[in-house]
């Protein structure tokens, strides 16, 4: 963590020396002390931003989801059409699980085949498609449950930790009753972190028309 | 090994200031010390019991006219550092006047400690505390009045000049904070 934050801020004593020359008057600090101060202040700023941005600020509200009883053929079809690699599974508006590509791969290979390439190899070296046995199953049969969820108020840093610790690519955002409000994908976090730290062209008020 | 390596230093000296800064520092110090010196030499004079000028004001001038942004140069530090150090110097002289080396060393050391603890660190305060011990008969005769005249009043005059002079140029300002 420490070495990571040092790598990102990377301000040299030369930079500081040049900046000090631009400020009129005698500054009662050495470039070395300023650099140390800056590194710590930078870390504080990152922490502040990480806790001030909440899940509700970055989540996608228009969520693609399926019902608990949705047939897997339809689940796969919807995921393919919408171009998502995972969907929350809903029962009575409440999130009861999540289905991702990973769940399909696992379901196709059972315990033995734990990667997509293993499934491909299995199909090519064997007889027919490994997906066929799932034809009569529904979402609830292969979904990962219970779903790990976060609330609107969860700091983005905590969402990121939950994803990293559980190796998830998306986390549904739910209200206090467990009803689906939105979803946060890994990419949302990367994008938010980057725009917070290095504002993109679109974020700057001067340049307009960039989405 | 690390102990000796620390003596090598780790960073470089800050950049030099501009000629503009040098000239304004000169002018501020000239006017500030002039005010105190005029009172000292002409209003009070040689024979007077009171004095206005002490050596530590020269050091204060470096800070409040030459390093106006420094936290050591701010009004809280200037006034607090001088007055607290003066009180400490007088008290320790009166306690240890039979052992002047103890009075001298404890007054400076204690002044630094108290200035740190009260967030009023002002390097000339160390001199102010020391002068209470080594300043001679005239200073010893003042007792605790030393903390008011010359120390408090002299520092106040220098502060007023600093406020008036340092804020004339557009690119300069003083203070950064009051308390």
Overview of the structural elements:
- The complex is a heterodimer of chains A (211) and B (179).
- Chain A has 211 residues and is α+β, with helices and mostly antiparallel strands.
- Chain A has a domain at 57-196: CBS-domain (Roll).
- Helices cover 48% and strands 12% of the residues of chain A.
- Chain A is built from ten helices and five strands.
- The longest helix of chain A is centred in the N-terminal third of the chain and has 22 residues, at 31-52.
- The relative contact order of chain A is 0.14.
- Chain B has one domain (18-166).
- The radius of gyration of chain B is 18 Å and the shape is globular.
- Chain A binds chain B through residues 13, 17, 20-21, 24-33, 35, and chain B through 10-15, 17-18, 20-21, 66-73, 171-172.
Question: How many whole angstroms does the radius of gyration of chain B measure?
Answer: 18 Å
Beta fraction of the residues of chain A?
5-15%
Name the helicity range of chain B: 55-70%
Terminal-residue CA separation of chain B: 42 Å
Return the average pLDDT of chain A rounded to an integer: 79
Note the overall shape of chain A: elongated
Given as residue ranges, the uncertain stretches of chain A (5+ residues, pLDDT < 50) are: 1-6, 199-211
CATH superfamily label of one domain in chain A: CBS-domain
Order of helices and strands of chain A: HHHHEHEEHHHHEEH
- What fraction, in percent, of the residue positions of chain A are helical? 40-55%
Q: What is the highest CATH level, the class of one domain in chain A?
A: Alpha Beta
Large-scale geometry of chain B: globular
Kindly estimate the percentage of residues of chain B that lie in beta strands according to DSSP. under 5%
Structural class of chain B: mainly alpha
| Low-confidence runs of chain B | none
Q: SSE string of chain B, helix = H, strand = E?
A: HHHHHHHH
Main beta sheet of chain A: 3 strands, mixed
Tally of helical segments of chain A: 10
SS elements, strand count of chain B: 0
């Amino acid at each position: 963590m420490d070495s990571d934050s040092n790598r990102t801020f990377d301000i040299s004593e030369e930079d500081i020396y040049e900046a000090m020359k631009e400020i009129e008057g005698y500054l009662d600090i050495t470039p070395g002390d300023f650099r140390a101060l800056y590194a710590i202040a930078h870390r504080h700023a990152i922490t502040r931003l990480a806790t001030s941005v909440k899940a509700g600020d970055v989540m996608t509200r228009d969520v693609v989801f399926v019902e608990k009883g949705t047939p897997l053929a339809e689940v796969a079809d919807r995921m393919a059409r919408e171009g998502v690699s995972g969907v929350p599974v809903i029962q009575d508006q409440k999130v009861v699980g999540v289905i991702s590509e990973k769940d399909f791969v696992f379901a196709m290979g059972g315990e033995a085949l734990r990667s997509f390439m293993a499934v491909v190899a299995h199909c090519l070296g064997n007889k027919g498609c490994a997906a066929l046995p799932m034809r009569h199953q529904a979402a609830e049969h292969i979904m990962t449950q219970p779903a790990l969820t976060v609330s609107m108020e969860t700091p983005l840093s905590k969402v990121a930790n939950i994803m990293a610790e559980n190796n998830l690519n998306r986390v549904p955002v739910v209200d206090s009753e467990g009803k689906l409000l939105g979803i946060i994908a890994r990419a949302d976090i990367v994008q938010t972190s980057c725009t917070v730290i290095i504002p993109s062209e679109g974020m700057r008020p001067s340049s307009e028309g960039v989405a | 090994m690390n102990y000796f390596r620390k003596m090598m230093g780790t960073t470089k000296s800050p950049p030099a200031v501009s000629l503009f800064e040098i000239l304004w520092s000169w002018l501020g110090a000239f006017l500030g010390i002039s005010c105190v010196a005029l009172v000292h030499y002409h209003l009070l004079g040689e024979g007077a019991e009171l004095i206005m000028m002490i050596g530590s004001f020269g050091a204060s001038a470096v800070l409040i006219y030459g390093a106006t942004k420094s936290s050591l140069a701010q009004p809280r530090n200037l006034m607090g550092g001088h007055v607290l150090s003066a009180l400490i110097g007088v008290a320790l002289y009166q306690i240890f006047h039979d052992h002047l080396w103890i009075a001298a060393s404890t007054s400076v050391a204690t002044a630094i400690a108290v200035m740190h603890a009260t967030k009023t660190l002002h390097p000339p305060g160390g001199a102010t505390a020391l002068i209470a011990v080594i300043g001679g008969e005239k200073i010893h005769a003042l007792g605790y009045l030393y903390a008011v005249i010359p120390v408090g009043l002299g520092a106040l005059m220098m502060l007023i000049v600093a406020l008036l002079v340092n804020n004339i140029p557009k690119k300069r300002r003083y203070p950064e904070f009051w308390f």
